Amino acid sequence: AVLAVPARLGASSVESQRIVLAFVGAGTVVLIGLLGRRVGGPVAGLVAAAIAAGYPMLFQSEAVLMAEALFVPLVAAALLLAYWAADRPSPGRFAALGAVLGLATLTRAEGLLLGVVLVVPLCWRLFALLPRRRVQLAITALGVAVLLVLPWTIRNAVRLDAFVPVSNNVGTLVDGANCDQTYEGALLGLWRETFSQFGDEARRLPQSEACFEGFDIADRQFEEAEVANRHRDDGLDYARDHLGELPKVAAVRWLRTWGVYSPSQQVDYESLEGRPRSWQMAGTVMFWVLLPFAIAGVFVIRRRGLRVWPLLAPVVVVSITAVLTYGQQRFRAGAEPAIVVVAATALVAGVRRLAPVGSP
């Protein structure tokens, strides 16, 4: 709803949305701090909140009005609720977790994938409970998530006369990520459109050259869902015809998303979405600094005997999304709260280890 202010309000509307999302971003910092407190203790929580407050990969989405501005706090809340539910398992707590995951799915479609990856292993490892009880809790969480998404899916079926669970974006995404330009050369692992270059002629090109060729919305027979499905099928057909190249392409997609493949080009590419290049580069560098601490933080948490899977689940989801779509650091947004928290935990543990014996 925040992002749906009528366009006729003009520039003042954009500023109003940015102001609202600034408050949402402040809430994100609080949630990350609470998650850090739950995992690493009070000091780690404060450090995690401080990092989150100055981390460009988090606050840029609010400035450019991207869905991640809402998705990230929902993911942070879901991770916090996952620990809360696992501490004292009950249908009510897992229902609350499912409700947040449902809202996250309405913000970005991979929210439902996060639900499966997070909830199923979490419930499976509740060894103090009977297997049937664990299954019931998992079904409760995922069922509530689906129920929250269902009204939107029904609305899509009525308006579009097709089964569209959340959105049609997957069609254009798959189409633009599977063509000659993204399977080799400088744009390997990225996404490409050709309508801005060739106009209507792009729709006459073969998939190998066209990538995403745009929509012909002037066509009186235009059906959004049908056209999106056709774009999706074009991309999938190309992928099937080039299965031998997919491992290489998927690997580069993954490396781009995690900021380690051609980072300067990646920053230039992502700046096209409205992010200032300097802030995007600062965020990339800050991620590189956090990454080794984050890896160390996983071992610190494991050594303390704490649950680490809730923090790893978003990383798994981001990796799956990147491999199946294309390389984009923005897709990493769902994993950023976990990265900040485990990095803060390792940082605090390292400082305590280096501090003189008996110091405060």
Write structural notes for this entry.
It is a single chain. The chain is an all-alpha fold and 360 residues long. It has helices at residues 11-40, 42-53, 56-63, 68-87, 91-107, 110-124, 131-160, 169-177, 180-183, 195-198, 207-210, 224-241, 246-257, 263-271, 277-303, 309-324, 336-354. It is globular, with a radius of gyration of 22 Å. Residues 1-9 have low confidence and may be disordered. It contains 17 helices and no strands. It starts with 10 loop residues before the first helix and ends in a 6-residue tail after the last helix.
Features:
360 residues; 0% strand; 17 helices; 71% helix; mainly alpha
Give a quick rundown of the structure.
71% of the residues lie in helices and 0% in strands. The chain has 17 helices and no strands.
Question: What is the mean predicted local confidence, pLDDT?
Answer: 91
Query: What is the tally of helical segments?
Result: 17
What is the makeup of the main sheet?
none
Order of helices and strands: HHHHHHHHHHHHHHHHH
Form type: globular
Low-confidence stretches: 1-9
How far apart are the termini?
47 Å
Would you tell me the structural class of the helices and strands? mainly alpha
Helix content: over 70%
Note the beta-strand portion.
under 5%
For the secondary structure, the number of strands is 0
Alpha carbon gyration radius: 22 Å
Which helices and strands, and how do they pair?
Elements: H1 11-40, H2 42-53, H3 56-63, H4 68-87, H5 91-107, H6 110-124, H7 131-160, H8 169-177, H9 180-183, H10 195-198, H11 207-210, H12 224-241, H13 246-257, H14 263-271, H15 277-303, H16 309-324, H17 336-354
